[in-house]
Amino acid sequence: MLTLSQIRPVPRATALIAALLFIIPGAQATPELRSPEETPVNAIERESERQIESLKQLYLTNDAVSALLQHLNALLRTHAFTEDRIVDLDKPQGLVYQLDVNEARELVVRTDDYRKAGAAQHSSKSVDVSGVDPYVGYNCEARSRKCWITDPVDASSEWLTLAHEPASVEKISASMAELIKRLQQRVGSS
Fold it and tell me: Which of 77, 81, 78 is nearest to 146 (CA)?
């Protein structure tokens, strides 16, 4: 378990389990097999589909990617990184991210940086997710009171900087993995 004084990457096996638990708090860490012929991979995929269906109902959409985008954007807004210890909920602060998908089916990350007084900086970056490992990792550092999602293209660098809330960042990482897998499926089918 991650402690406040540790910096620790999420191993790939942990990321796979986390992907299972990315949405629903009551999700099972090891879903039950329905029959002797069913494999653990099939059980995990079935549980993942059940969670996606719950998200689609929550966000009133029939599209899994749209539901995941809305879910991730809500999580990213809620867990925005700010250097201030007191957060004013009535004004934007810190680093705020917004995800979208462009016509080329790339993941677009818009960053709004409100850390400098008086001047917000806005940037946008497209990420081609085809061929990348969908299981993005995360790290947390107590001293700087921040966590970050690692870049899916270059797993050694920070990509999205978030508030120091390891459990929430783990869910964001797992949801991001599911989104990347879905985008890869779309690119592969076109």
Answer: 81
Residue in the block written with tokens 């462009």: 102
The alpha-carbon radius of gyration of the chain (Å, integer) is 17
For residue 140, the SS3 value is: strand
Instruction: At 63, give phi and psi (nearest 5°).
Output: -105, 125
* Chain position carrying tokens 């990482």: 173
Strand 158-163 to 146-150 pairing:
antiparallel
Q: Does 108 fall in a domain? A: yes
Task: Judge whether 150 and 139 are in contact, CB under 8 Å.
Answer: yes
The pLDDT tens digits of the residues spanning 58-105 come to 999 999 999 999 999 999 999 999 887 777 667 778 899 999 999 988
Question: Does 3 map to a domain?
Answer: no
Q: pTM for the complete prediction?
A: 0.77
The amino acid sitting at 88 is D
Q: In total, how many domains does the chain have? A: 1
3-state secondary structure of 149: strand
